[in-house]
Amino acid sequence: MAAPGQQRLVVVSVSPQSRASLAAHFELNPADTARKLTAFFKKIGVHRVFDTSFSRNFSLLESQREFVQRFRGQADSAQALPVLTSVCPGWVCYAEKTHGSFLVPHLSSARSPQQVMGSLVKDFFAQQQHLTPDRIYHVTVMPCYDKKLEASRPDFFSQEYQTRDVDCVITTGEVLKLLEEEGVSLSDLEPAPLDSLCSSVSAQEPSSHRGGGSGGYLEHVFQHAARELFGIHVDKVTYRPLRNKDFQEVTLEKEGRVVLHFAAAYGFRNIQNLVQKIKRGRCPYHYVEVMACPTGCLNGGGQLKDPSTPRKELLQRVETLYSSVRTQAPEDAPGVRELYRAWLQGEGSERAGRLLHTSYHAVEKASSGLGIRW
């Protein structure tokens, strides 16, 4: 454990998308990749290695609750719907900068898995280790360069302890560079046991969520809303592609009437079409899963490329590996209910609101450089 005034305790949190990309590159299965990655990070001095699938449980559950609340309150607010996901920082940056005051009220306030993990590590885990948040250095491994921007938002900085929830973000590609610099091939490493955030839960193998490579927000929120609002159990979500495979719709009908209308919009061409629909007051959707990258997070800009393999073929391999991991409903994940009770003081508490949600801000365009201002 880190001694006061000396070294900090170093934690690395790995995204399931990065794990799948590395698994494809090294021709490993996701479980072996997770264990060997844990071994590598510990070899270079990391103390704990966690999986952001665990923090995604909280992000999904909070997204479900928020949608139901906003759906029920739509009569009181014209801006309650559609709810637009906010887990993609490239999309959030575009929304805040380009259509700020118009789109920001529609953004979901639920934190992304990366930023929920920031709360878990710097609040819950720090308490368990009897450390202040600034005594932990938290690194995440992500499929996306824009996650660096997300981590640097002032909303995720503690003034009291002068520390960020996530101190450093490295992409999947940067992990490969790190391996190469250390002269290590992931395949050759002896696997190490996986770490668990919850002392009462042993992490035997990685887990994930159904609903695609971007986290499954549409599916989880749709199935929860169908059950909670209309008493309908949806076992399988059926997508209907529209103008292209990156713009798809899902509907729920009751007594011949469409009562829920969801969509997934990936890539900026589809995002721009969606924004125009909202601006014209012609958006039929209650909820939209929005991602800046075509085909979503598994195709993120920080993922591994292979010049010898066609892009589509490589992406298919990554998708297959990603979906081979055992899935579970977020409410059933070991440790989740326990942490809601013991750490967050219950579902819907003030503490849960503070640690699992955030707010977004209309931003004026910067006058020079990239034009990104957070």
Automatic annotation (TrEMBL):
Secretion signal span: none
Origin superkingdom: Eukaryota
Start and end residues of each Iron hydrogenase small subunit domain: 308-364
Similarity section: Belongs to the NARF family.
Protein name, per record: Cytosolic iron-sulfur assembly component 3
Organism: Suricata suricatta
